[in-house]
Amino acid sequence: xxxxxxxxxxxxxxxxxxxxxxxxxxxxxxxxxxxxxxxxxxxxxxxxxxxxxxxxxxxxxxxxxxxxxxxxxxxxxxxxxxxxxxxxxxxxxxxxxxxxxxxxxxxxxxxxxxxxxxxxxxxxxxxxxxxxxxxxxxxxxxxxxxxxxxxxxxxxxxxxxxxxxxxxxxxxxxxxxxxxxxxxxxxxxxxxxxxxxxxxxxxxxxxxxxxxxxxxxxxxxxxxxxxxxxxxxxxxxxxxxxxxxxxxxxxxxxxxxxxxxxxxxxxxxxxxxxxxxxxxxxxxxxxxxxxxxxxxxxxxxxxxxxxxxxxxxxxxxxxxxxxxxxxxxxxxxxxxxxxxxxxxxxx
Length: 347
Prior knowledge:
alpha/beta; Rossmann fold; 42% helix; 434 Repressor (Amino-terminal Domain); six-stranded parallel β-sheet; 347 residues; 12 helices
């Protein structure tokens, strides 16, 4: 599988040495080796020296000619998202397509469905097809591995979520700040027991929104009750079941913050089924202002993300990497906006 030559082409003297072997010898990730070889300023001097020592010891020589031919040969960008049914991602991909098309690139979309195995298969396909670059919404902050792309020098930019185990560019919103603002809005409406329906906490997005909710409670001087936080896994059914659990509490919430749009659909269905009115019985706030696209009531207060802008900026960043432009690792954090509507306003 490793096809990056280590010695001079045609010489037949030196066996192939791959980035993975260099990484193993240096005790670092293949992504870190790529950063060192591309003269990234984000690698510490100690790691850089270990990598360069391994390069010298193994006799590794990156085949810049082959890398250049690969870049010229493909004009395809891969986009691997975590849930194709979520309008957030489809709106974001529109921003990707517009920028890619203007630059002469095509886009191939893959749905990992929050499944690490499916995600890995798509990453391997992107590597085998020698795609120019990949935009990735990782299923896990710690378990997702992009080594298969790093070995081949294929650049990656993560969107909506970050990877903790790799030094890559990313574009996302300030989830912590947005969730804190939404929680404080519910406090301002008189809510004192605010339920929170969390997403996948193995992602930086899910963890960031939960941390923002708790920060909002602390800022308001309210306790963070364990029973008021229920995971809905970013799914409609999960949102419905989580809401049912919260409504079954002896002292049920007077406010509810749902941390993505799909779970908000499930939450509204559960509230309607139980005959619980919002905002009279419970003040409701969602995350992702995509309610009309989901045939959900448009009067729901929600955090609105700049979905198109996320896709646009991430693609522009990826194309700079594809072109070989050297620059330090970029982290772009965009602001989200709380759009206040009837579902959370109390007299």
